[in-house]
Amino acid sequence: MRTRVKICGITRPEDVRAAAQAGADAVGFVFYEPSPRSVSPALAKDLVSVLPAFVGAVGLFVNPEREWVEQVLSTVPLDLLQFHGDESPEFCASFGKRWIKAVRVRHAGDIEAAYARYGNASGLLVDAWDPQRYGGTGKSFNWSLIPASRPLPLILAGGLASDNVAIAVAQVRPWAVDVSGGVESSKGLKDSAKISDFINEVHRVDETD
Question: Engineered SS bond to 141: which of 122, 128, 183, 207, CB 3.0-4.6 Å?
Fold first, then answer.
């Protein structure tokens, strides 16, 4: 099975192009103002317009007001919604879009509980726990907490970069990997060489199987 790759926290058109040219399956846009990678709906609309065919646009939200999600969707043609806060499954499913739910993994059983609660999602993203932040921590977590039984596609995030993603893919066998800080020169500014190196490492593991 080929491991999909999402490059998240895109803020510039050149980074959209770099991700697509390197072989990314999706790019992510952050609609959460406290994040240094946050973008406005107007900017995100322009960035999505740069995307070539067959590269998906994902919108990331953290405990948003309904009106904010609706405002973004009225402007930006997103393919998928990603919820990173404490949103209920009913809220996530209420926008007429496919969606994935992020869970910050702290204890054994967290992922199984999320699978049970968010069973209507298109996938479950597993990330590192941080009491102050809803993702983007640059930290990994104990991958042995990830169960072998996965009712939904599992997306691995948290502290990934080109120097560890091959190990992550080989050990976890996720449906996809999601990276942001690990391919940046500074917060919100991607490095095209790091993007290429990251995706090449993912593909290298896939090709050796």
Answer: 128
- pLDDT > 70? residue 104: yes
| Candidate list 8, 15, 92, 178, residue with the active-site label | 8
Which CATH number does the domain 4-208 belong to among 3.40.50.300, 2.40.110.10, 3.20.20.70, 1.10.1200.10? 3.20.20.70
Residue 185: which residues within 8 A CB-CB, separation 6 or more? Answer: 191, 194
Report whether 174 contacts 155 (CB < 8 A).
Answer: yes
Domain ranges of the chain: 4-208
Residue 61 β-bridge partners: 83
pLDDT in tens, 143-182: 989 999 999 999 999 999 999 999 999 999 999 999 999 9
Q: Which two tokens stand for residue 99?
A: 């969606």
| Amino acid residing at 184 | E
Q: Which of 92, 127, 197, 206 is catalytic?
A: 127
